[in-house]
Automatic annotation (TrEMBL):
PANTHER family: PTHR31625. This is Uncharacterized protein. The keyword Acyltransferase applies. Keywords: Acyltransferase, Transferase. It comes from Citrullus colocynthis (colocynth).
Length: 471
């Protein structure tokens, strides 16, 4: 049974605009690369951080908030695209990003009742709607006379739970940046506020460094233009969109992950296949994603007696950071934009539901990881097409986030976050991976499903961990 703190009340204390220091950044146009255009019509992505903060609201607003605003302003001087707008003109003009010295970021300050803070933290299933009041409403779009849309890129909300804690909610458009770039920004802000050195390169904004030998920009622009109407993120209220969705966090310890790796190696050996100890089949990412994938498909199909053995494809998608040389030419480590290859592994549903589903999943994902090292982006159009068809039939699942983002290293001086979550998993086809907040080498899995599906998923998860010797 999912718990809910649906009586959560949030009072808005202040709404303000924060911009870079006056005169520090000139008007700047930024083109979109094909890595960005993929995400043009995606709704805002949201990351939520919870911190212990045993002080009053007055202490926060009088003592902490001025420094937070100042440090945010200084951070935005370097990460200025976030203050700008996504400019979406009518076809055939290309969308782009535009920053002007008049632009700013919306920051909302809110307060909630103290007891609700601890009700939001547990990992067990909770009503998925509970956290939405901790996120700001998305600012209104601008609209020019010729139909050009001007869409904000970032909005923030800090909610105080007096004498207990606070939350920082970051909502952003994926078309502007990917996960590594977002966390570059957040950790820079935290470091400037805390007065600490942040060991990271400055953001690099020249998006022309991304080459397009496969003509992907044109392909993705055609896909964008093929969708009728303007960009519109939300067409139904949260209560209707989420229904009975519940949100939960499942954890794998470092020991459990090692057991999964060893189990996979033993199974592949039994099949008489050559065993390479450095194979991507046995990475923490692959074994964790394979476990979630199999649990998702089995729990989605229903009880074992009701499983339908079909040859339709089940798809799993992930992204691969291309700042590390995968493109065959250098991309600066501090590149501020999207630089993620879109990857899809596909296998037949009968193979997932069979007795070797976990091994088949490991091999499919591991093989795709190997392939992206050799050719990162050439097949993205075909893979997105396969993913979309699979998603329509309900047989697709994707992972967002990554343990290497180090979300729990975001320290404003109040200590590490005691919980961090990703909101967009509420679509039901996504799950989030993050590093363990308690143990180096462990992994957290965040997911949101209907209440009955979540109950089945957790049961299959525990059954598989027991089968694989991890319980």
């Amino acid at each position: 049974m999912a718990e809910s703190c649906c009586n959560l009340s949030v009072k808005i204390l202040d709404k303000c605009l924060v911009c870079p220091p006056s005169g520090s950044v000139p008007t700047t146009h930024l083109p979109l690369s094909f890595f960005d255009i993929i995400w043009l019509r995606h709704a805002p992505k949201c990351r939520l951080f919870f911190y212990k903060f045993p002080h009053s609201t007055a202490h926060f607003t009088d003592t902490i908030l001025p420094s937070l605003k100042q440090s945010l302003s200084l951070t935005l001087q370097h990460f200025y695209p976030f203050c700008g707008k996504l400019i979406v003109p009518p076809q055939p003009q290309k969308p782009h990003l535009l920053y002007t010295p008049q632009d700013s970021v919306h920051l909302v300050i809110a307060e909630s009742d103290s007891p609700h803070f601890h009700a939001l933290l547990p990992d067990h299933p909770k009503d998925a709607k509970d956290v939405y009041q901790l996120f700001p409403d998305w600012p209104e779009f601008g609209l020019l006379s010729d139909g050009t849309q001007l869409i904000p890129l970032l909005t923030l909300q800090i909610t105080i739970f007096p004498y207990q804690g606070l939350s920082i909610a970051v909502s952003f458009l994926h078309v502007a940046v990917d996960g590594p770039a977002l966390h570059h920004f957040i950790k820079s802000w935290a470091s400037i506020f805390a007065g600490k050195e942040f060991d990271a390169p400055p953001p690099f904004h020249d998006r022309t460094v991304v080459q397009d030998p496969h003509g992907l920009e044109s392909a993705f622009l055609r896909l964008h233009w093929s969708i009728p109407g303007p960009i519109n993120f939300y067409t139904e209220p949260i209560s209707q969109r989420l229904g009975d969705k519940v949100r939960a966090t499942l954890s794998l310890s470092k020991h459990q992950i090692e057991r999964l790796k060893n189990w996979g190696k033993s199974q592949i050996t039994k099949l008489g296949q050559p065993l390479e100890m450095e194979s991507p089949y046995f990475s923490s990412f692959v074994v964790t994603c394979s476990l979630v994938w199999v649990c998702f498909v089995v729990s989605h199909a229903g009880r074992e007696s009701e499983l339908v053995w079909e040859d339709e494809l089940c798809c799993f998608s992930f992204v691969a950071n291309c700042r590390n040389g995968r493109l065959g030419y250098p991309i600066p480590r501090g590149y501020f934009g999207n630089c993620l290859a879109y990857c899809v592994a596909a296998i037949k549903k009968s193979e997932v539901l069979g007795g070797n589903g976990m091994v088949v999943g490991m091999k499919a994902i591991g093989k795709r990881v190997e392939e992206v090292e050799k050719e990162a982006v050439g097949n993205m159009v075909e893979e997105i097409s396969v993913w979309m068809k699979s998603a329509e039939s309900g047989n697709a699942v994707a992972v967002v986030g990554s343990p290497i983002l180090g979300a729990y290293d975001t320290n404003f001086g109040w200590g590490r976050p005691i919980k961090t979550e990703v909101l967009q998993i509420d679509s039901g086809r996504l799950f989030c991976l993050g590093e363990s907040r308690d143990e180096k080498g462990g992994i957290e899995v965040g997911l949101a499903l209907s209440s009955p599906h979540m109950a089945r998923f957790v049961a299959v998860w525990e059954q598989n961990l027991k089968l694989f010797g991890c319980l």
